[in-house]
Amino acid sequence: MSKILIVMSAADTWVRTDGSAYPTGYWAEEVAAPHERFVQAGHTVDFASPGGVLQPLDRHSADPAIAGPDCAHHVAHAERALREFGPLLKLDRVDVDDYAAVVLPGGHGPVVDLYQDADLGRLLTAADASGKLIGAVCHGPAGLLSAVDADGRWLFAGREMTAFTDEEEQLFGTAEGAPWLLAATLREKGARHSQGPAYQPHTVRDGNLFTGQNPASSAPMAEAMVAALAQ
């Protein structure tokens, strides 16, 4: 079986265009569903973040009115997995050669730090060059923006992917005042972005790149990656 690295944001605050602070953290389903699928398939999962910082839970992901009736299970699983793993690995000390896949969950944190994290950029560049699987769900694809070369060229330009849509950001109530919108930015940078209905599962595979649109896409994306690892 393989080792899989889940790279989490370290951000707990998203500063809005008016200067206000929006509390953020990891989205439970986006950590729990992939972790659960990977472990059930016999894989080992490590967690890393910038500085090894464990960000808090995004409380919205624990609200059944927002995150659905299974959110208590996702919260419990994510909290248990993170607690049992212990201190997160520091991203700048991770050796990508140790892993068969790298996965980026969301919550709004990745649009705060991971999108410009040079250590993540180097890790993703090395992972892609060696054909390792790369997964990113919801706001996680913001982390893909970190992979640029010395001339500023984006590694994933021209690739097919999906991410949390501008429509979903508006429906969630966080589009107004956002410093930038993820899906629009991915398209501007050259991604071939597609989307399904708001908050419904939608996943895209482009070679070794697996992306999911929203929290509901977390498990389907992970299942696609498990199937690919088994080939």
Automatic annotation (TrEMBL):
InterPro entries with a match to the protein in the record: Class_I_gatase-like, DJ-1/PfpI, Prot/Nucl_acid_deglycase
Stored Pfam families: DJ-1_PfpI (PF01965)
Family assignment from sequence similarity: Belongs to the peptidase C56 family. HSP31-like subfamily.
Listed GO MF terms: glyoxalase III activity
Domain of life of the organism encoding this protein: Bacteria
Any one Gene Ontology BP term: methylglyoxal catabolic process to D-lactate via S-lactoyl-glutathione
DJ-1/PfpI domain location: 29-227
Protein name per its UniProtKB record: Glutamine amidotransferase
GO cellular component, one term: cytoplasm
Keyword Membrane assigned: no
Alphabetized UniProt keyword annotations: Glutamine amidotransferase, Lyase, Stress response
PANTHER family per UniProt: GLUTATHIONE-INDEPENDENT GLYOXALASE HSP31-RELATED, PROTEIN/NUCLEIC ACID DEGLYCASE DJ-1-RELATED
Stored SUPFAM superfamilies: Class I glutamine amidotransferase-like
